[in-house]
Amino acid sequence: MLHLSAAVDQPSAYDSGSYVELARLAEHGVLDFVTLDDTFARPGLDALAVLSRVAPATGRIGLVPTVTTTHTEPFHVQAAVATLDWVSRGRAGWRLDVSTTEGEARLFGRRHAAPADALWREAGEVADVAAKLWDSWEDDAEIRDEPTGRFIDRDKLHHVDFHGTEFSVRGPSIVPRPPQGHPVRVIDASEGQARDIAARYADVALVRSVSAAQTRAVRDRLRAAAARFGRDPDALRVLAALVVDLGDGEHAAEPGHGGGGPRQTAQGPLYRGGPVDLADLIASWHEEGAVDGFHLTPAEPRRDLERLVNGTVALLQHRGLFRTFYPGSTLREHLGLARPVNQYAGEAS
User: Fold this and answer.
1) How many C-beta neighbours within 10 Å does residue 60 have?
2) Could you give the CA distance from residue 160 to residue 203 in angstroms, rounded to a whole number?
């Protein structure tokens, strides 16, 4: 199954309507999910809050905000992501990232910047404790028995008692277990520091590369590492991450683009050409087994997302390479991922 997703980043947009418009367009194309980037390094809206506004205005598209694990409280982060899963009825994801600069650290004044490898180890601990907190309520912990006045079966609430290198969390969560069990965790696995964390904790790994061979090599390494961590490699989706500039409309891709692959730029791998050539590239990489799908960032949000949906996606659907309807209602169902079993189910509190 081919998976497609897109970014709806708009650095200069401060009204919710523009994000709703792009998310609805992506949903019209039956994309698995949209992402919205966020960072402490520049001004902008809070991605998770924006997508919480987008949630009731959409019905099927997955919603994946970036939420950094640096300078934030893991307990609050997991509760916010779980809340997004509830308000979207099971369509939430979470793109984990870290904050590496001293300028970002000064915004909080709690500690100095740290090396990326240490921050990614901490991010792994946050991903781990988030899953434990999501499981700290069993699915049937809420009983709502009015005659007896019992709202919760306390035998089905669990303390996680997590002790990490930078934080400790006792739990349980203040939010009941999310509809998906665990909202989908997304990590950019392009850099070495993040790759092991993605292999261990991510449901979706993004890889920025300029060739099918390079992407396939990273995918193979990620799947092998996932197996070493005791995971089923088939439960990890690896998506090639490209910036796409479809400003040339239906014209052929520039040399080095299209069938020849994207070019490396300061912003990452860039494809520049037309929707037809992009469809050919997507089909070729997927059929070669290099990727499970693509995460595409439009160079010009409205123009390129519209050409992606109405051109590239429509052509892939016509060829029978991409679905024409959503297979279910949750992001996990879109991605073909099982709902995780609660790790505490059956234990005494």
Assistant:
1) 20
2) 22
